[in-house]
What we know:
- The chain has six helices and eleven strands.
- The longest helix is centred in the middle third of the chain and has 17 residues, at 163-179.
- 23% of the residues lie in helices and 15% in strands.
- It has helices at residues 99-106, 110-121, 163-179, 215-230, 232-235, 263-266; strands at 4-5, 15-16, 24-25, 47-52, 61-66, 94-96, 130-135, 185-190, 198-199, 209-210, 239-242.
Amino acid sequence: MLPVYGTSEADRCVKRKYGYDSFVCVCNATYCDELHPFPTKLLKEGRYLHYVSSREGKRLESTLSEFKEVTRSEETALFRTNTSVRYQKVLGFGGAMSDSAALNIASLSRTAQEKLLRQYFAPEGAEYNIIRIPMGGTDFSRRHYIYANDQENLNLTNFNLTEEDLLYKIPIVKRAIHMSVRNISLCTTSWTSPSWMKEPRNVTGFSTRLRDEFYQLYADYYVRYLPQEMNLSQQGVYKDFVYFSEEKIFIAQYRIISEAWNTKLRGSE
């Protein structure tokens, strides 16, 4: 018989309900849902590791199982794989260190913060290896803010980070990198350009767009952000890739911090 690795956490789980017929387990200083160590040498050809979380209280309970020959029927799902055909490479998995994420993490006790972060980034956790850090404010921020928002500052000399970066996002990202045994890739994007680069001059609303004369300056805005955001030479944290603008659609009635893009603006070459 193949073993079960990881026991049910029902007794340790502090249940919290949100009006549905299920619950979540509160992550605190003594408990977070976690992956249990598994001897990978047992995961040989023909075997698989099965994880289960349930309403009865199982949390990431893992079972080592074997593929079996079965008689095909209407109830049987049939999967065929061709391992000789490869497509794009998966770079990894991760999450966004938005303002709301960083502020909520910071609101926990130091011990609970450590427990939570380890469940995402440490070897005993999910081992995330990608973190997205927003460039400025987003719809997950307490306020609307961007960098270099003084009117018509064409040299971007007023470009400065905010307390959300310096007090919350950057310190927490550094802790995640420190506890990970993997190389963590960082990516970034902005939700909007400064309001004075846009038409109309608002940071909110998908009906706003980048004015033609500010294409290059907005690219400079990105370039200015990269060394400032992480102080690369001193902190040893590097951005691996960037992309332009989040949620590139055009819905005028939404009043979140955003910007509309189309094929012409993004470039069709």
